[in-house]
Amino acid sequence: MAGRSTSRPPHNRRSRVAGRIVGLLALVPVLYIVAGLVGALIPLNRGWVPPPAGIRVYVEDNGIHTGIVVPADGWEDVVPPVSFRDPRYARHRWRSFGWGDRAFYVETPTWWDVRPGTIARAAFGSTATVMHVDAVPEPVAGGRVRALTLRPDEYARLLAFIRASFAGGRSMPGYGSYDAFFPARGRYSAVRTCNAWVGEALARAGIRVGAWTPLSASVMVSLPR
After folding, report:
1. Res. 108 pLDDT band, cuts 50 70 90
2. Where are the domains of the chain?
3. Among 197, 200, 165, which residue's Cα sits nearest to residue 181?
4. Which of 29-33, 35-39, 115-119, 173-177 has the lowest mean pLDDT?
5. Do 44 and 140 contact (CB within 8 A), yes or no?
6. pLDDT (average), residues 53-67
7. What's the pTM value of the predicted model, to 2 decimals?
């Protein structure tokens, strides 16, 4: 009588391999989030302390995207009032700036709009980047808004970084009558996200911020309180 075979059917082996691959892929987002939080806890400009008086700016967080809010003075050449569908919003004395992948920005204004396909396309990299500009009243610090006081030279470096991110060209419609998109420079990827751009801008200005801030939470937890 022939002995019973101990080999597993090929389809069972394939199923086991496929299961392991799926398990590893499921770990990728978790590892990415952990790495983003670790990067936030490694400070750049460790010795920075805010001056007792200076120029006030804000960092705002909507849960996905962070933006830098600065006074509107001096931005008319880059962001003319006619950029907004309702130019009356240009009377607001503050401007919020964010950078990122055009499709990701346009298609994901909130968490409710997030789609896996949009995230996957952006993560692999895109040169179709935009600057997102909102005309806003002065924010109120607290919750998802952090106020920072800068020295004049720090503020000048921050503005220079933001300006250098614009590629020139005509504005494009935003989410509403109060905002607009503009062509931008730079390549977006899972490494250099919209939030990583905010971290870079603050680091360039000399402010204490995390070494890598790919998530909105990465930016906010790394900022001085």
Report:
1. low
2. 40-222
3. 165
4. 115-119
5. no
6. 95
7. 0.84
**C-alpha separations of 77 from 72, 73, 83, 193 in Å:** 11, 10, 11, 26
CA nearest neighbour of 32 among 195, 202, 220: 195
Residues 6+ apart with CB under 8 A from 186: 99, 127, 129, 165, 192, 197
Helices (H) and strands (E) in the chain, counts: 6, 9
- How far is 128 from 49, CA to CA, in rounded Å? 36
Q: What's the CA gap between 37 and 28, in Å, rounded?
A: 14
3-state SS class at 64? coil
| Residue 177 vs residues 60, 113, 133, 169, 186: alpha-carbon distances, Å | 20, 20, 11, 19, 26
Give me the residues paired with residue 131 across strands.
99, 182
Going from the C-alpha of 107 to that of each of 6, 76, 119, 215, 217, the distances in angstroms are 53, 27, 10, 17, 20
Q: Cβ of 101: how many Cβ atoms within 10 Å?
A: 27
Q: Give the end-to-end CA distance of the chain in Å, rounded to a whole number.
A: 79
pLDDT in tens, 76-101: 999 999 999 998 999 999 999 999 98
Here the tokens at position 146 are 């952090």
Report pLDDT digits (tens) over 10-54.
556 555 544 554 445 456 677 888 888 999 999 999 999 999 999
